[in-house]
User: Which sequence fits this backbone?
DNA sequence: CGCTTCATTGACCCAAATCAATCTACGTGG
DNA sequence: CCACGTAGATTGATTTGGGTCAATGAAGCG
């Protein structure tokens, strides 16, 4: 099961061989993209859905004064925009955070597959709802927690999502996100993010050099940020 | 068109007479509920979807330390939880902000209607995506704007949504939300919300007594908070 | 090897929080 | 009809988490 989309959706529903084959067909013919390219720009009317197969991307919005808010991180297996089907124009942009491998899927193809394969349709719907739940948790995070807890919560979530697709090694994973970007995610300045990271290091909670983050004490990390992974719905409803 | 759900969905798609009749059937047999009751509690596994016909409700989450974050306001015509169909347990609660009239719709009934009436299915999907876009805008709001601008943005959004269902009178509308709750919405304290409101009053930007809010200068309100109503998608895609 | 992008550190500042009283408007029971 | 009780609004005094400004290090790379 090399296709990360299949890997992700299989967590939600049972997929039969034909479902898997369909998903592989969607991910066929992927293209390399260089880091920091935008996949979709605010105001676009995209006609395709982009599937991320390798690398990270982020969903973000820039205000008139230049401030930037990151609203989501996309990792392998994520579809950039199921919205495409109904909404008019993009109200935000999607940019790469690392070199990446992406597949471009025409709207048509998605519609066909979801019509023919109810299991896939259901899994995509499920994944949309998980995205929405994640957004709600980010809101709680930014609205109510202090800088330290916010960052702890974000790290827990990243680890959890990456572990679902096999991209963690123990408590460690590769995180191609600068401190500036972490700040734009949590409504903090890069300077303050830096100080919080220093503190986490001095408390031996994490290790972070280059793009390698290691969570040394997962229990403490979760406790401090009140992280409850249930909203990511790793398990199926019976 | 007295049914506010019909009124809301009609903005998205053309509904024929039969669609309208179906929606009226869903909203049949509503019940009065008193303010401050919870409609759904975190941890529940709701078996029905609740439709709000009159009054306001809010989606919120309480942290272990007692802090509360409000994640959405629900107004007449809103469905409390389409999520019910796929997700497991509620990861947040929904409570009333005022006396209200609500209809309880069994899952089954929604499934039937969406199977039989594609226009309704499409409109519900659209409305879910609008909810998600709204959440993204709240994130930007809390993450990047200062207290004054946040509150201005929220007031613009409230006015916009209420005007869609005919609940505004010029720049005014009834807002059954305390300053404490406004604070829990925007990640601010009630005290600070109060001071911002004082300032808006002194600048003759608003009038607010009891539950009656009047926006005196809509242009200024929008300009200051960089409010762009497009994310609420009042108009249809051609 | 020189650039450029990130990370780090220090000094100082401010928006919003905190703490602590009032004040006001209502709804209720007597 | 009125005294109370209570939820919500208001105000003042003080504190603080995080921002701002400004350098100075590192590290990766063409």
Assistant:
């Amino acid at each position: 099961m090399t296709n990360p989309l299949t890997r992700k959706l299989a967590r939600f529903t049972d997929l039969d061989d034909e479902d898997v084959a369909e998903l592989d067909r969607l991910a066929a013919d992927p293209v390399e993209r260089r880091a920091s390219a935008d996949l979709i720009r605010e105001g676009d009317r995209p006609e395709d859905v982009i599937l991320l197969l390798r690398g990270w991307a982020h969903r973000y919005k820039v205000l008139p004064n230049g401030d930037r808010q990151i609203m989501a991180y996309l990792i392998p297996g994520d579809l950039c925009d199921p919205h495409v089907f109904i909404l008019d124009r993009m109200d935000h942009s999607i940019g790469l955070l690392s070199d990446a491998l992406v597949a471009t899927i025409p709207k048509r193809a998605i519609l066909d597959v979801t019509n023919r394969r109810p299991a896939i349709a259901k899994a995509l719907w499920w994944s949309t709802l998980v995205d929405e739940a994640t957004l709600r948790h980010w809101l709680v995070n930014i609205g109510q927690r202090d800088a330290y807890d916010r960052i702890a919560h974000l790290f827990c979530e990243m680890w959890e999502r990456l572990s679902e697709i096999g991209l963690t090694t123990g408590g460690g994973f590769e995180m191609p996100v600068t401190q500036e970007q972490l700040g734009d995610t949590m409504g903090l300045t890069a300077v303050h993010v830096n100080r919080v990271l220093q503190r986490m290091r001095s408390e031996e909670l994490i290790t972070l050099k280059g793009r390698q983050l290691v969570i040394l004490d997962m229990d403490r990390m979760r406790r401090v940020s009140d992280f409850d992974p249930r909203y990511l719905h790793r398990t199926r409803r019976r």
About this structure: Chain B has a mean pLDDT of 93. Chain B is about 40% helix and 20% strand. Residues 118-144 of chain B form the longest helix (27 residues).
